[in-house]
Structures are given as structure tokens and as C-alpha cells.
Design brief:
Shape: globular
Radius of gyration: 21 Å
Largest sheet: 3 strands, mixed
Length: 314
């Protein structure tokens, strides 16, 4: 099948998470609940950062971008997955696969880069406090955030071009619950070795480079913490950076296990089970992790509630 015929006519069948009706119903309820909580939790962070002047700092600026990313990330795949769980089957046209897989890849790549930027922000704030105001001024904040979005989009577009130049006239069943572009190569009818090399290079750039930035940043932060004489100062640093480290561990642990480490054919369901973690669970946990022990966010919530109660009083 030529690329033109494939683009207009090809249909992919998603095998989903399970073929059992009872299990699909349970998963639908669980995923719908998690989706709603994810959207509400991340939306709360965005609203608080916008309305509270004391949260107008670089750290919360990047956190609001992360919250926006998480909402878009789960929305790119989960609503369609919920529809497939109800219908009992999942079918996507090639255009639908490009839109779903491309948007998920773009947003996931952007999140990888943004987590690296957030670690660099914490490094500057703790290890170079005198330079922090100039290094993370409003112009640089927007430049870093926009760069993450643009690079994520470019990575997705390059991946789409590389994958959809192949012919797909053979099997069309994908053992996944959404159209993850990388795994379409298993269905290609021609040689994909060169494409795999390109995609592996993109994965190293998008995943490992920010991950190394995070490791270097937190190594410097830990060194600075150990030099501190104040116990209160050490506690403040750990409380500020601890949440970011938890998010990084959850997100990068699952991403690296799929895109960097070798795959084993002995467990065909491994990829989609891991995908549940970084596509469904991590976006839900991000607002919880960042707000659970964050006194600034607690104070902002209390301030909003008090002002709301004051407005309602006659």
C-alpha cells in the first residue's frame, strides 16, 4: 500500500487493556474518575497561580505549565480510551492515529523537557540565589517554557514523518489502548531499521538529556544542603525539591523503561501496562504531590476560601 493510500484508507484496531466486559466496565469507572480528578486538580493549580500574587514566581510559573500539560496529556488519549472501553473495541483511522499519537508524543516530550527546566530553576534558586532574579526573569521564564513546547512539537512532527513514510499493508492490530506512534513500526511492511535509529536518537535527546540536567542540578543542590549549618534551611530545601523529585521518579522511571531500555517479547502487555502509569496515574499524582506539603499552595487555598466566604456574607 502506498503512503497516499495508507494515509486515507488505513484503519488500526486497538486491542485495549482487556477483552472481558466486566473488567472493561470497572476500568471505565476507574479511568473516568481519575480523568476528572486529574483535570480538577491541575485546573486548581492553574487558577491559584493566576489569582494569587504571591505565587507569581518562576517555580509556580513552570508548575502552572506542567499542570496545563497534564490536562492536555490525559485529554489527548483518555476520552477516546473511555469510549473504546464502552464500545468493547477500538478502531482508529490513520489520520486519527496521527492526531492521537502525535499529540500525546508532543505533550509527553514537552513534559520531559519542562521537568528538566524546573530542576534547573531549583538549582539556580538554591545554589546561585544572587543570580536567580536576573537568570530567571520574566523574559527567560517565557523563553524556556515556549522552547519546551516548540521542541516537543518538532519531535512529534519528525516522528510522524519518519513513521508514516513506511507502508502498512499487513496486520493492523495494535496491542495497546491508544495509538502510540513508536509501536506502529512493528506493523510496517518494509525495512524500519533506519527509522528506529532516528527515533532512538530523538528518545535519547528528549528523555536522557533533561534527565541528566535533573541529576546534575540535584547533585549540586544536595551538596549545597550538606554545607548548610541551619536545620531549618535544610528542611525548607528538602520540602521544596522533594515533590519535584517524586514527580521526576514516577515520570522518567516509566518513560525510560519503554523508550530507552530494551524490550522483552515475553510480556506483550508490558508496554500498555507501563503506559497506564505515565499517561493516567502520573498526571493525577502531580497536583497531589505538589500541593500535599506545599505551604504556599495551602495558604493560597485558604485565602481564596476566606475571600469567597466574605463575599457570600450579607
Amino acid at each position: 500500500m502506498s503512503t497516499e493510500n495508507f494515509t486515507s484508507e488505513a484503519v488500526f484496531i486497538l486491542l485495549g487493556l482487556t477483552s472481558q466486559r466486566n473488567q472493561r466496565i470497572v476500568l471505565f469507572v476507574v479511568f473516568l474518575t481519575m480523568y476528572l480528578l486529574t483535570v480538577l486538580g491541575n485546573l486548581l493549580i492553574i487558577i491559584l497561580v493566576q489569582i494569587d500574587a504571591q505565587l507569581h514566581t518562576p517555580m509556580y510559573f513552570f508548575l502552572s505549565h506542567l499542570a496545563s500539560l497534564d490536562i492536555a496529556y490525559v485529554t489527548s488519549s483518555l476520552p477516546l480510551t473511555l469510549a473504546h472501553l464502552l464500545a468493547g473495541k477500538g478502531m482508529l483511522s490513520s489520520i486519527g492515529c496521527i492526531l492521537q499519537g502525535g499529540s500525546a508524543l508532543s505533550l509527553g516530550s514537552t513534559e520531559c523537557l519542562l521537568l528538566g527546566v524546573m530542576a534547573y530553576d531549583r538549582y539556580l534558586a538554591i545554589c546561585n540565589p544572587l543570580r536567580y532574579a536576573s537568570a530567571m526573569n520574566r523574559k527567560h521564564q517565557h523563553l524556556l517554557a515556549i522552547s519546551c513546547w516548540i521542541i516537543g512539537c518538532v519531535v512529534s512532527m519528525v516522528t510522524i514523518v519518519c513513521i508514516f513514510r513506511h507502508s502498512f499493508s499487513g496486520p493492523n492490530h495494535i496491542n495497546h489502548f491508544f495509538c502510540e506512534l513508536r509501536f506502529l513500526l512493528a506493523l510496517a511492511c518494509d525495512d524500519v531499521n533506519r527509522t528506529k535509529d532516528i527515533l532512538n536518537g530523538l528518545s535519547v535527546f528528549v528523555v536522557l538529556v533533561p534527565f541528566l540536567v535533573i541529576l546534575c542540578s540535584y547533585s549540586c543542590i544536595l551538596y549545597s544542603v550538606f554545607q548548610m549549618q541551619s536545620v531549618a534551611g535544610c528542611y525548607k530545601v528538602f520540602s521544596t525539591c522533594g515533590s519535584h523529585l517524586v514527580v521526576v521518579t514516577l515520570f522518567y522511571g516509566t518513560i525510560i523503561s519503554i523508550y530507552i531500555t530494551p524490550h522483552s517479547s515475553s510480556s506483550p502487555d508490558r508496554n500498555k501496562n507501563i503506559a497506564v502509569m505515565y499517561l493516567v496515574v502520573t498526571p493525577l499524582l502531580n497536583p497531589i504531590i505538589y500541593t500535599l506539603r506545599n505551604k504556599d499552595v495551602h495558604r493560597a487555598v485558604i485565602k481564596v476560601l476566606k475571600s469567597r466566604n466574605f463575599e457570600e456574607k450579607p
